[in-house]
Fold:
Amino acid sequence: VQLQASGGGLVQDGGSLRLSCAVSGRTFSIYRMGWFRQAPGKEREFVARIVWSAGITYYADLVKGRFTISGDSAKNTVYLEMNSLKPEDTAVYYCAAHMSGGSRFDYWGQGTLVTVSS
Structure:
């Protein structure tokens, strides 16, 4: 499975961005897709996830109500719509895939940088 994240960039405080993650390979075996982020000097943290076949979503408290994860199975793409962005949302954002039969997110994209200026 290969994942290619895109859509990062520079945005002002309060602005919006949409990240995309194109998935290729054994897409039929995907159980969940997720977004994670890592800010400078900090550990990687969970942002949001979606059960690929059912569309069930779950969010970290820090982004709940501001971010929306969605998937398009026809395009094999998962999105992260980010609204009301804050400087503390600045990070490299990674998409990841949890395959059926696996116990965790095993496949990762290369990351896309989101910078929110104050």
User: Anything to note?
Assistant: The first strand starts at residue 2 and ends at 6. The chain is about 0% helix and 55% strand. The chain has a mean pLDDT of 96.
